[in-house]
Specification:
Layout lengths: L2 H12 L8 H10 L7 H11 L5 H14 L28
Length: 97
């Protein structure tokens, strides 16, 4: 079992705060500047430090969904993004509606 899977199990099955960093969370964290890192472990550590404890059980779901449906890999929907004003993505103007 890898780190991501172990964190999913800890979070969803046992209710333990954990951040399962997948490709969506990695992209959103780096693109927006929320928790930039060179690898998933760096991003995980930053998110665990930055996300308030009361949101840790749900934060990885929110970030995955944001990356899957709004901050997509090829054509992000920057104009429809609720954190567009906070985002540090340099090319976001190319994707504004």
């Amino acid at each position: 079992m890898g780190r991501k899977t172990a964190n999913v199990v800890l979070n969803t099955a046992f209710g333990q705060p954990a951040m399962a960093v997948d490709t969506h969370i990695f992209r959103v964290s780096n693109r927006t500047g929320i928790a930039p890192g060179k690898n998933v472990l760096e991003v995980e550590k930053r998110l665990m430090r930055l996300v308030p404890r009361e949101f840790l059980l749900d934060a990885h779901h929110w970030l995955i969904l944001h990356g899957r449906y709004t901050c997509t890999a090829r054509k992000p929907k920057c104009g429809a993004c609720i954190i567009e004003d906070l985002c540090e993505f340099k090319q976001k103007r190319d994707y504004m509606d």
